[in-house]
Structure formats: C-alpha cells, structure tokens
UniProtKB/TrEMBL annotation:
GO cellular component: nucleus
Matches recorded under Pfam families: zf-CCCH, zf-CCCH_2, zf_CCCH_4
Keywords: Metal-binding, mRNA processing, Nucleus, Repeat, RNA-binding, Zinc, Zinc-finger
Species for this entry: Acaulospora morrowiae
Protein name (Swiss-Prot/TrEMBL): mRNA 3'-end-processing protein
Residue span, C3H1-type domain: 35-62, 64-91, 92-119, 120-147, 149-171
One GO molecular-function entry: RNA binding
Lineage per the UniProt record: Eukaryota, Fungi, Fungi incertae sedis, Mucoromycota, Glomeromycotina
Chain ranges passing through the membrane: none
Amino acid sequence: MPGPGQDFFHLNNSKSCTFDFEDYIKTELGLGATNESDTICQEFLKGTCTKGAKCEFKHTTNYREKAVVCKHWLRGLCKKGDQCEFLHEFNMRKMPECWFYSRYGECSNEDCMYLHIDPESKIKECAWYARGFCKHGPHCRHKHVRKVVCQLYLSGFCPKGLECTNGHPKYELPTAQRDHDGQDDDSHHRHHGENDEARAYLD
C-alpha cells in the first residue's frame, strides 16, 4: 500500500499525467510535436500520412512557398509549430523586413538581422509608361523605367526572355490598377487619352 508521500509524487509527475485533449492539440493543431527531424514528410505532402505527431518526419504545408522567416519564432514565441505559414529556420535571405528601416528609412541597430529594403525598389513599374506613354508624367505614383527597345523582341523573339535588360513593350492594355484619386488606371488613362486625341483631331 503506497504511503502519502508516494501519492503526492505520482500526482506531481508530469510524465504520468496525460489529458484527453492532448492528442487533438498535437494532431489537429500541430502544437507540441515531438519530432525534431528537418526532413519533410513526403506522405504528409500527399495527404496520406496517418502517423500524425508520432511521425519521425516534419509535417508542414506549402513548405516551398514560405517566403519569410517567422518573426515570432525568432523570439521563441510562435505556437503554431509546423502549421505556421512562415519559415521556422534561420535563413538570412528570407528574414522579415526591418520595421524601423521601412518606417523611418534608417535603423540604429548595427547588428540588425532583418532586411533593409530600399523603398524605391518596392515601387511597381508603371505599365502605361512601359507601353509607351503615361499621362501622369513625373507625378505618377508608379516607377517610370527608361529602357531601349529590344530589337530582337520587335523582330519576333528574344532568347533572353524576362532576363533581357532592354525593353519588351506590351501592346495590350494594362490591367486595372488603383489610381491616386481612387480611379482605375486603365479607365482613367483611356478616358483622358480619348479626350486628348479628340482635341488634337479638332484642332
């Protein structure tokens, strides 16, 4: 017959206590998984793995599509485990963007491990300017990139494709983009373009 001290030890032994909801948390939510393998479970990617949290390989979704390292994981605070939509690994090329640099244009931390991205590089290229003409001129909120027209592309085929440094003009109308005043860029350009052509014809 166990003594009073033995009962107390048994109740306070965490390894002997299991709750009914633990399996659900591990298998459904992906929290507290015990496998330490960095190898992705191929069966899980196919949707055919039945081992759940007991699988010796890592269960993760859209692994190759995870573009940024999880900022919560970097601080040891991420609770999503393998189900997190961000990377749980140190990869300097896929670090999150530095909030201070993006907000103020500078960062005082000399050892900052977050990405310092030039704001100019995040501005999208103006599809209308690339096509030949943008009515907004220097006031356009998109980037106007000057390129020499690729003669090979004009002839019918450029072997360099998207890597070509010369311009590959597109003749179809750009897709709708929101303008400064809330109007779509394509309808805004078409409306003013048609009026300009009409005035030139009447003059």
